[in-house]
Amino acid sequence: MIDWFPTPNPNVHPLPGPAEAGGLARWQALINLRHVARSTESADRSTRGHSERVATLSVMIASEAGWYAADRHALREAALLHDLGRVCSAPAEAGPHEPGALGHDDPANDPELGAQIASVALEPRQVSWIRHHRARWDGAGSTDGLKGPHLPDGALIIGLSDAYDRMVVGAEGDELTRADAVVECMRGYGKRFAPWVVDIVMDLADDLPTGPADERPDVLRLAPAA
Questions:
Q1: 69 pLDDT band (50/70/90 cuts)?
Q2: Could you tell me if 146 and 132 are in contact, meaning their C-beta atoms sit under 8 angstroms apart?
Q3: Is pLDDT of 96 > 60?
Q4: Which listed site, 57, 59, 80, 193, has its alpha carbon 20 to 30 Å from 4?
């Protein structure tokens, strides 16, 4: 698989001067953090490629919401590193995602820790997206009082994209179909998820990523959650 970050060619790109040094340092930090995230995700089938899928869906939603290209690129960078709080947890804590959790938060993922780590490479707004990507729209369980429209839009998009992917890609045999995952998102409308993000997901329903459950014959699919 070709990594998201290209390898610089010194024959094409000359060594940077003082003005470019900061950008090069940030670029190298992004590469290093991305490799950490990918290497840890690859250890489990349910997490392998998770951040790439979350980033892709996040950009789809942002595009539908009318975000500019530069903002979508910034969102992609943050989404690719949104799980750093999990991959840097103690090995005993960083187990596979719970198959029956219907996209609910991974207890081993500490968004605050992930945001602190990502801050060496990301801009403040991107760091805030990672820090708050597990926040609920209704504020239930909030530790800082933020809820509703006071939450960063990027965090709301990444949060739903993260949950959706863990619904359709879980432990073998327990994944939801795309249709059932959309239903679960609708159940979180105005509660866990921002209404405007759910509205976009519903509009994109036919184009959303599918998972293993969508490839099974109907007779073998699990019944939707009660």
A1: very high
A2: yes
A3: no
A4: 193
pTM comes to: 0.80
Query: Rounded distance, CA 201 to CA 203, Å?
Result: 5
Return the ∠ at Cα 197 (arms to 109 and 154), rounded to 5°: 55
Question: Do 95 and 108 meet the contact criterion of CB atoms below 8 Å apart?
Answer: yes
Of 7-16, 53-62, 83-92, which has the strongest mean pLDDT?
53-62
85-88 contact pairs (CB < 8 A, 24+)? 85/109, 85/110, 85/111, 85/112, 85/113, 85/114, 85/115, 85/117, 85/130, 86/40, 86/110, 86/114, 87/36, 87/37, 87/40, 87/41, 88/36, 88/113, 88/114, 88/117
Top pLDDT among 1 and 20 is at 20
Separation between Cα atoms, residue 134 and residue 38, nearest integer Å: 20
Between residues 22 and 63, the one the model is more confident about: 63
